[in-house]
Amino acid sequence: MSTSNGSGQSLPSVPTSANATTIKPTDLRGILKYVPRFQGQIFVIAIDGSIVADDNFGNILVDLAVLRSLGIKIVLVHGISHQIKELSVARKIAITNSDGTGVTDAATLDLAIRASSRVSHAVVEGLTQNALKCATTNAVRALPLGIIRGVDQQFTGKVERIDKEFLTELIDRQVVPVVAPIAFGPDGRSLRVNSDLLAAELAEALQATKVVYLMPAPGLEIDGEIRREIPVDALRSVVQQSPERIEAGVRSKAVHAIKAIETGTPRVHLLDGRIFDGLLNEIFSNEGVGSLVYGNDYAQIRRARKGDVRMIYNLTRAAVRREELIFRSQQAIEKNIDQFFVFEIDENIIACVTLYFYPDKPQLAEVGSLYVMPFYHNRGIGRKMVDYACMVAKERGATTVLALSTQSFGFFTNVLGFEETAKDALPEARLKVYEESGRNAKVLFKRLA
User: Fold this and answer.
1) d(Cα 140, Cα 121) in Å, to the nearest integer?
2) Which of 55, 221, 229, 398 could pair covalently with 393 via S-S, beta carbons 3.0-4.6 A apart?
3) For residues 37 and 298, what is the distance between their CA atoms, to the nearest angstrom?
4) Do 159 and 259 touch, CB atoms closer than 8 A?
5) By C-alpha distance, which of 252, 278, 263, 283 is closest to 208?
6) pLDDT tens by residue, 344-403
């Protein structure tokens, strides 16, 4: 099953297994529409150590080569928790912490350095096999975390600064920086840092457009349910008030997704790195296959522009075929583009609504052409669109809003608080158009308090 992305392309649904693949060569046109938007931008890709060890890791490296071929700049960060645990068992050496968030004693640091070397080599080897230039770096400077609540964190570090100039020079030379979770203190000695935090710090320093966490989980799980997208304010509230609601394995990424957005990164993706083609599907489709955390200015309603005409036309075609909306040609949409408002996520239009004012009855306004992409149903977007239109209508002096509906009148009456009325409530000119259409739509109204 697929849905329209609003540009006439068919987009894949979420894979049902770790081996599922959804992007095909025929989707190339759908991918290429994103290229002007992302070209030249920096993506920080953070790969868990367990994903480096997964069979799908080779496919991820191919995906990274695709991103680079499209002019997207990549900075790669990797974790080592999985490898440290393996070394601990193999060498029968107890460790104090595996992910860089707790105490790192000398023995654990030694295993971390060995694990980091192995993982970095695997990454560099894989990138080389995909004809990508890359370099491991010492671009991260750190300080000892010190004593926290009376406990000496020993060789655990906190990021002091990122050598932005060094990384930028590598990126400008078409080299992929590979950043390990081992940083260096003022004396040049090694300190263990958390890779989730490191990704957020790199994104801030480099003004990245995205952080993508590739992990062994299907997404951001809250209260046992995968959240496909969540605004940062809502996630922050959960983290601060009841972090136990977030699945333990992704809690660190949730915390650092908030940090990344608060420091200027517009969007953070949490994605299952075991899904074949998952990275490309997450970036090059409206729906994605993981979870998206976004800033408050990311999902928004705005007035439509002429450049949106084709997108609006394609967005609503399916509803027109089902006779949910009346047909409007692209020329008609363009002529009345000032009546349209659109809901935009990641610069993609996923919903629209119109607001029309009657010249001879300024107290009346009409809401119409409400449409939300099926993938985004049951998320409150339709309500937001109508509420926004009503707010605009009230600001412009209207006291009553009308709506005509053939199939969605239950949504207007049960959810939005509209009431049914007789067709005679329509202004004379509008009533004539109504009669000529033959659609026999229900006429609904709502008083604006």
Assistant:
1) 18
2) 398
3) 15
4) no
5) 263
6) 877 789 999 999 999 889 899 999 999 999 888 887 889 989 998 998 999 899 999 999
Locate 441 and state its tokens: 């739509």
pLDDT at 261 over 50: yes
The amino acid that residue 144 corresponds to is P
Q: How far apart (Å, rounded) are the C-alpha atoms in residues 340 and 302?
A: 9
Beta bridge partners, 178, equal 76, 136
* DSSP tag of 441: P
- H or E element, residue 344: strand 340-345
How far apart CA 431 and CA 166 sit, in angstroms, is: 68
Helices assigned H by DSSP within 322-407: 330-335, 381-395
- Residue type at 431? L
Terminal Cα-to-Cα distance of the chain (whole angstroms): 42
**Contact in structure between 216 and 50 (CB atoms under 8 Å):** yes
CA 364, CA 400: separation in Å to the nearest integer? 5
Q: How many residues does the chain have?
A: 449
Angle at 409 between CA 404 and CA 414, to 5 degrees: 135
pTM recorded for the entire structure: 0.71
- Tell me the sheet residues that pair with 270: 213, 291
Yes or no: say if 179 and 137 are a contact pair by the CB < 8 Å rule. yes
The DSSP annotation for 7-66 comes to: SS-EE----SSTT-----GGGHHHHHTTHHHHTT-EEEEEE-HHHHTSTTHHHHHHHHHH
E strand or H helix that includes residue 331: helix 330-335
Strands, DSSP E only, in 149-276?
A: 151-152, 157-162, 176-179, 182-184, 190-192, 210-215, 220-222, 225-227, 229-231, 267-272
What SS3 class is residue 428? helix
140 vs 328, more confident: 140
Beta carbons of 137 and 167 less than 8 angstroms apart: yes
Rounded to whole angstroms, the Cα distance separating 5 from 87 reads 46
> Whole-angstrom Cα distance, residue 302 to residue 283?
23
CB contact burial 397-431 (16+ within 10 A = b; e otherwise): ebebbbbbbeebbebbbeebebeeeeeeebeeebe
Question: What span, in angstroms and rounded, lies between the C-alpha atoms of 382 and 368?
Answer: 12
